[in-house]
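Dear colleague,

As promised, here are the two records you asked about, laid out in our usual form so they can be pasted straight into your sheet.

NAME FIELD: protein one
SEQUENCE, THEN STRUCTURE:
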Amino acid sequence: MTRVDDELHIEEKLVVCFDMCSSSAILEDLLATDNLRSLRDLLISTKDFIRLKSHIPGLLLYKFIGDGWILLFPPRTSGSALLDFLTRLSKRFSKGLANSVVPRLQSTPDVMGLTFGVDKGRLVRTRMMEQVEYIGRALNVASRLQGAIKDKDHNPAYKVLISKHAYTDLAIPVEDYSVEPVTRKLRNIQGGKRLEFMKLKLRV
């Protein structure tokens, strides 16, 4: 017998994955001095900013795993709106790091901040264990792109790696950002072939 929850629902989404550079080192440092509360407060502040200050109707804070986040945006979100939000988010996060976390570290990592991966595509929406879940290539690609920013980049903080088709659809105003084409191999994506993407640096 087929239930309503078993039906397939296909939705177009703009997917953004991001996480924190040097998170393991920061976590271990704060744990050693019993200062984990400062990191927890920063993560809660980040969550509240996403939910209350995005100014993008339809934005869904889909997942938080460890120090990584998955955001789902409406497919017609403009490049200007997306990058304005990511810039504001990055500035707030950077300020929180500097004011609340760094003063409590015994050793400050060389690289701190956020890195972002972006893709766009159709996702399957379903329900598992009483929760809404999404499945699709765009989720996998955005997650891999976020991780691939650090490849061959000694200063990856506050940079965004975007698939070419998402970059084209977003119509990003290139005059306002530093943008460069790059090639990367993504694990379990198209057999590990080297693919072309666009890398962008936010003004933080």
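NAME FIELD: protein two
SEQUENCE, THEN STRUCTURE:
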Amino acid sequence: MNGYSEILRYIKQLGERDYFINTVTQGDFKDIDLDKKNIFPLLHVQVGNASFPSDGVIRFDVQIGAFDIRDIVKEPSTDKFYNNDNEIDNLNETLAVINRIWLWMLKDFEENNITASEAPSLEQFTESRKNLLDGWIMTFQVDVPNTIISLCN
């Protein structure tokens, strides 16, 4: 059964295809931004739990996040709305990345007999471990046909 690795490989290719993304990583979201070699903006993928909802189908829980580093201007700002950083720009651009990838996936899924959640959830993300990151995490499920193993084998 290769559905797990195929989903990861496919989303990696979509991230590499997007003109805004420089690095694609995978794994647990708590480990994001730990590699010093990451070049931002970054797309991060986590394929979590799986289930067998019916014969010949594997359902995966998938999360895709797009993030960029917040730049803070050292000069004081009197603008209370925009502050002195690019947080709004980062959130706008990373949301556009997630939207492009979702639309590409929907088109490709239809051609490959894969079903995706009707409406993925989107969560705003701001994290400061090593860098101060702004972005979005999209959560959805995909049902992939299991063509490798059948009940007849």
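A couple of things worth noting about protein two: The beta strands are 23-26, 42-54, 57-69, 115-116, 121-128, 132-145. Residues 42 and 106 are 21 Å apart (CA to CA).

Best,
R.
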